[in-house]
């Protein structure tokens, strides 16, 4: 199966500029291709990851992937998908974001020389205003630019000349890589179609109408309920483990709806058709086992964070499900209890009843605390406590940083110990 046929099977192609020509090209040679990303933030989220998964598939198929970190375009702002002008970042912030994104890309694509990261600041910053207008601006028809979807969607509220020229800058990127690196294919989200075709038009005008330059876009990924994929109730799911912990990352994929899981397995994993077909069968015949969701969470978490992160996430998941939290590390506690009710108290030993009422406010009264203890409803760090005269010692577990209280079957509280 060719790489293009595989992408079709995965439902990962929205539009191609020349389907027959691109299909022939990728079968004939190792093609140079690229995806661009502007350093508007210091981390990608999983929505950004979608075109890079396609790029990774080309890499694994023996092609030559390039990644443009938009040091120049990121300082300008892409109007795509925005209802108002972007707030311009300082160049120091842009450079910081570049460094962070570069590290993420190196982790995803490896450092074995099979892919290359470039920065469009290296060539766009060398073009003078007069050269920009004479050599490139003259080749772009304003009427055509206004008809591009990303621009047309902004005409009612207005668009600055700065963002209006973004498609010219991105076109120059494609021309530069086509000329200098023999890159013939640009990949992007569905909203990038206008920018991609503008780049191909520029190449044809300067290199001849028979120049072999192609574009491919990816569909907007929607969930079964029609909402946009990529966010949880708490916001974006980030690749940066400081923004979204590996456990939270794992749980996001594990909690995928049955109706969406096969689609996401096709998009976000490198499992083959037979493997995904077996998982599809399991969704239909034994959905409660959640085999497809588990495999999805394992595959994507390992790709983004590594195998150790998968093991850690599964350890936390098992401990929270069983209630056996005593073997968790302080780091795992930080991840697993991040969104649970929490309070900070002193590290002094204290009578447990008083501590539950006065310090943590977990119990509403001493009478209720004694009743819950007597009935076996209170667990401290995984251990059931029934003695109303017992003391709590915050230094006894988790490096003295936390005490985990479980009240009833499912209500957890994270008690942080002040230092």
Summarize this structure briefly.
The protein has 19 helices and 15 strands. It has helices spanning 3-9, 19-28, 46-60, 91-109, 121-124, 129-136, 142-147, 149-152, 161-164, 166-181, 193-207, 246-254, 258-268, 273-285, 291-305, 307-322, 330-336, 352-359, 366-374; strands spanning 15-16, 32-37, 64-69, 116-119, 183-189, 214-218, 231-232, 235-236, 342-345, 350-351, 378-380, 383-384, 391-392, 402-407, 411-417.
Characterize the structure shown.
The structure is a single chain. By secondary structure, the protein is of the alpha/beta class. Helices cover 47% and strands 14% of the residues. Strand 14 (402-407) and strand 15 (411-417) form a beta hairpin. Helix 13 runs parallel beside helix 15 (291-305). The model has no long low-confidence stretch (mean pLDDT 91).
Major pleated sheet: 6 strands, mixed
Average of pLDDT = 91
Spans where pLDDT lies below 50 across 5 or more residues: none
**SS field, number of helical segments:** 19
- Fraction in helix: 40-55%
Strand content: 5-15%
**How far apart lie the N and C ends?**
60 Å
Work out the oligomeric state of the chains in this entry. Answer: single chain
Secondary structure: number of strands? 15
Q: Write down the overall geometry.
A: elongated
Query: Largest sheet, order of strands side by side?
Result: 1-6-5-2-3-4
Radius of gyration, whole Å? 27 Å
SS class: alpha/beta
Family: Belongs to the class-I aminoacyl-tRNA synthetase family. TyrS type 1 subfamily.
Main location: cytoplasm
Subcellular location: Cytoplasm
InterPro entries: aa-tRNA-synth_I_CS, aa-tRNA-synth_Ic, Rossmann-like_a/b/a_fold, S4_RNA-bd_sf, SYY-like_C, Tyr-tRNA-ligase, Tyr-tRNA-ligase_bac-type, Tyr-tRNA-ligase_bac_1
């Amino acid at each position: 199966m060719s790489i293009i046929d595989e992408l079709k099977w995965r439902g990962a192609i929205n539009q191609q500029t020349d389907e027959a020509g691109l299909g022939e090209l990728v079968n004939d040679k190792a093609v140079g291709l690229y995806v661009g990303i502007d350093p508007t933030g210091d981390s990608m989220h999983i929505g950004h990851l979608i075109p890079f998964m396609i790029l990774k598939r080309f890499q694994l198929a023996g092609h030559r992937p390039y990644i443009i970190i938009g040091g120049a375009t990121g300082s300008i702002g892409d109007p795509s998908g925005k209802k108002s002008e972007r707030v311009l970042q300082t160049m120091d912030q842009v450079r910081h974001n570049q460094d962070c994104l570069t590290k993420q890309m190196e982790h995803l694509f490896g450092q074995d020389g099979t892919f290359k990261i470039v920065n469009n600041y290296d060539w766009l910053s060398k073009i003078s205003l007069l050269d920009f207008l004479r050599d490139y601006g003259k080749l772009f028809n304003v009427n055509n630019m206004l008809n591009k979807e990303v621009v047309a969607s902004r005409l009612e509220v207005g668009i600055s000349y700065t963002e209006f020229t973004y498609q010219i800058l991105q076109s120059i990127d494609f021309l530069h890589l086509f000329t200098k690196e023999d890159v013939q294919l640009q990949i992007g989200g569905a909203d990038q179609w206008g920018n991609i075709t503008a780049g191909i038009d520029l190449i044809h005008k300067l290199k001849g109408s028979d120049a072999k330059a192609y574009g491919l876009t990816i569909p907007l990924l929607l969930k079964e309920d029609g909402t946009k994929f990529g966010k949880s109730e708490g916001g974006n799911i980030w690749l940066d483990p400081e923004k979204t912990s590996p456990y939270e990352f794992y749980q996001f994929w594990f909690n995928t709806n049955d109706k969406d899981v096969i689609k996401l397995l096709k998009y976000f994993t490198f499992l083959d058709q037979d493997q995904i077909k077996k998982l599809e069968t399991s969704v239909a015949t034994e959905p409660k086992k959640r085999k497809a969701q588990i495999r999805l969470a394992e595959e994507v978490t390992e790709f983004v964070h590594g195998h150790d992160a998968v093991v850690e996430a599964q350890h936390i998941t098992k401990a929270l499900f069983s209630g056996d939290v005593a073997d968790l590390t302080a780091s795992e506690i930080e991840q697993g209890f991040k969104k649970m009710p929490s309070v900070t108290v002193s590290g002094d030993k204290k009578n447990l009843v008083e501590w539950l009422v006065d310090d943590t406010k977990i119990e509403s009264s001493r009478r209720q605390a004694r009743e819950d203890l007597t009935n076996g409803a209170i667990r401290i760090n995984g251990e059931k406590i029934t003695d109303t005269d017992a003391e709590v010692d915050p230094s006894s577990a988790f490096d003295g940083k936390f005490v985990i209280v479980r009240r009833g079957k499912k209500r957890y509280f994270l008690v942080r110990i002040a230092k």
